[in-house]
Amino acid sequence: MSVALMIAAFLMLLTSAIHVFAGGPEIMTPIRQSDLSKPVKAVADVVWHGITVMLLLMAAGLAWLAYVPNPALLWMICAVQIGFAGLFIAYGIGQLGNLKQMPQWIIFLGIPALSLWAVYG
Q1: Which helix (H) or strand (E) holds 107?
Q2: Are 106 and 40 in contact (CB under 8 A)?
Q3: Contact between 87 and 30 (Cβ < 8 Å)
Q4: Are the beta carbons of 62 and 7 closer than 8 angstroms?
Q5: How many domains does the chain have?
Q6: In whole angstroms, what separates CA 115 from the centre of its chain?
């Protein structure tokens, strides 16, 4: 078993919990209470819950990788997280003018770094 990959899995599970229990009230509640159309709100819900599913699947995948080596799975999970990090960086700088308001990029770069170090370190 890879302890570092289990830590990465735990961090991704923690990220999932933060997404649901802190992000939901901060992001989804105002969207649901807004004057946006029902279809726009429904799409926002699908995207939000889709990300929740992705986060949980990545946590499960990292836990699996702690026991069963699978380079393709590792690189896919890392690619998704690095993609998320890129989006947070691009939109943080592009729309907010800073990286402070959306620091999620840190965890989405940190977990892949830890995961890749665990396997190739």
Answers
A1: helix 104-120
A2: no
A3: no
A4: no
A5: 1
A6: 14
Q: CA 7, 60, 112, 50 torsion: positive or negative?
A: negative
Distance CA(70)–CA(42), nearest Å, equals 36
Quick one: pLDDT at residue 55? 98
Q: Which two tokens stand for residue 44?
A: 């926002």
Q: Distance between CA atoms of 61 and 45, rounded to whole angstroms? A: 24
Question: DSSP 3-state assignment of 116?
Answer: helix
Domain coverage including residue 58: 3-120
Query: What DSSP assignment string belongs to 67-99?
Result: TS--HHHHHHHHHHHHHHHHHHHHHIIIIISSS
Local confidence band at 114 (pLDDT 50, 70, 90 cut-offs):
very high
pLDDT tens string 28-57: 999 999 999 999 999 999 999 999 999 999
Q: Distance of alpha carbon 112 from its chain centroid, rounded?
A: 11
Cβ-contact 90, 76 below 8 angstroms: no
Q: What single DSSP character describes residue 22?
A: I
3 Cβ contact list (under 8 Å, min separation 6): 66
